[in-house]
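Re: beginner question about structure tokens

> Can someone show what the tokenized structure looks like for a real chain? I only ever see the sequence side.

Sure, here's an example I had lying around. Input first:
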Amino acid sequence: LLKKHIKSIAIVFLITNFLIIFYTFSSDNIYKSNSTIIVNKDPSSLSILNMGYSADRNFIDNEIGILRSRTTSEKVVKKLLDNENLDLYLFENKNNDKSLFSSNNNNDLNELSRQDFIHKYSSKLKKSIYISNNKRTDAINIAIESRDPEEASMLVNTLVQVYRERDLEWVTGEMSHLKNFLLNQLDKKEKELSDVENSLKVFQEKEKIFTIDDNSKMILDNLTLFETEYNNIIAAIDIINEKEKFLNSQLSSEEKQLAKKVSNTINQRLQAFKLEMGIIEGELVSTQTKYGSNHSAVLDLKNKLKNVKSKIEEETRKLIDKGITVADPILYRQSLMDSVIYIKSVKSNLSSKAKAYQKLVDEYDAKLSVLPEKILEYTRLERDRVIHAETYSFMSQKLEEARIGEASKLSKIRIIDKAIPNKIPIKPNKTQNVIFGIILGLILGAGVSVIIELSDNTVKSIEQIERRGLVILSMIPAISSNNNRKSNGKKYAKKDLDVEKLQRRLITHEDPKSPISESYRSLRTSLMYTKLNGKCNILLVSSPGPGEGKTTTIANLAITYANLGKKTLLIDSDLRKPVMHNVFKVDKSPGLTSFLSNNSDLNSIVNSTDIDNLDVITSGVIPPNPSELLDSNKMTEFIEKVKEVYDVILFDSPPLVAVTDAYVLLKHIDQFILVIRPGKTERGALERVLTSTNQSNFNITGVVMNAISEEHSYGSGYYYNYYQYYYGDKA
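And the corresponding structure tokens:
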């Protein structure tokens, strides 16, 4: 198959390689610059109360998602614009001195607003970013491609810089927010404390009360202690609420909904644990007040509380993992969402604790209410002073922690390898492309040959003939240009060239020692052995369709019979498109139609040739009713007369599929030869011929495979090659 279509394969191969080589050497060089960074996990809490929890899961995937995000790319483009880095291939403005947004710039960028420009080229930048993670490490490789190596390295370094800035902004953002909140709260608490102290001072000076009895003092101290604890818990809840507010501002609406959904699930699943924890908290505070911190009952309650908190934490983590793993780590920032969900859990715990202290405060407040009015007022003012002082101290401590946290926070990004220009282009890879072109060309060439073969509905091999039960009488090699006579430099009209071409096909007369001539002699021998009896042998040669070589075959076969000494008559019974008169250079009229129409006798239509023992009867004038003439009684009379004179009579008939003329003559002949040309004869036409001959109850004597070449020599190549080898040197 490959040998048959070697020319098609070669053409496809050359075209494919030409296109790939042209693309390779006409494409712009593309350079890639790389940078490697390490992202350190920060196990510390995001909250100043140590209430935030960061998720280990998909940590690196989250960071890669941030690097690939649209916001990061937009910040890079903004930074380039702010630094006036405009002469870039990224902005399609390389070596263009005009402003990107000036009205005299012919570039279409002047039609873009700044924001549209950022959106457009951030998308382009995002497509050129390649990020990968080294397995089992926290190292991330960042690469960007560009037509300029300097630009590629600059873009990578700018991206890393923007990424670090975003990381620092996130790390310090919460602390800054809480610091501002605490500053505002401290101003209020300071004013409240000052007012309470002044009120206490005025009361003492007026009522001359500077101390109280021991029992009242004990009640006041306990009440102050519990109320201080209660206020501190309320302050912690306020700080957590502020942290929750900040975190929610960082989440998208979809992330907020998902966090709310998981939180609701957690609250429903853990309600029993939370109720149990609230009861234990109340008992612990009450017992600790009565018996002190080291009592066995207090220690036992602390252990129970610790176990319940561990169960709540464990179950909460399981539910968060189950609820959030459906989210894409690139789209959802689990660490933020985990913090929001845990804040709700911590807030619930603090609320339970606050209720327990509120209960104690109410109890001691009731005890205090039975004291004398002046003592009661004094204890109230003293209690307010101590509580405000403790709350102010607590919030001052948290403010200092927030300030220290803000100042001490560092980016978790560490640059291992800074991007440098790489002068060696990564694209196009000339060697790889050439090898790819060779492989692709061969594959496409083979594919084209298969497609051609599958789409070819013609007869192509001897096996296809034999499978239909037909006998191969002979295989005629194709007549090449080496077998043709030279025209000696003469110019011919198209009609003259066709005539010359037909005349050159009398190969058995021109070159009797050629392999082709031997093939025709082999055909003659096969026909002689298949003729059983009778003095005169009448043969009909036809083909399924036009252009398959029936005229060439019958003319050369007639010459081989004549060379054998047989008195041979060649009759052109193709009364529609006759050509035999051109082949033997005789007049077309009078001919066969002249005899059949009673215009001439037999002797007047017989033409002698320059080949001994060979006579030719041409078609004559083309009639309007060829089939009727061939099926007339006159035709029967004609055949009876020529049988008495000639040993071999050959009829050249029209193609079998086109007209019925050949079938009309079948009743007069002894042998019927079907000419098949591989690559020309259609399988459907051959099937119709076989069906028609079976219906007429006449068997085909055999098939001549005409114009066999190496590309059509399936199973018969040895025949073709042997004759070429044996006769080639003598031809």
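Each token stands for a local structural state, so reading them left to right follows the chain. The CA atoms of residues 561 and 568 lie 7 Å apart.
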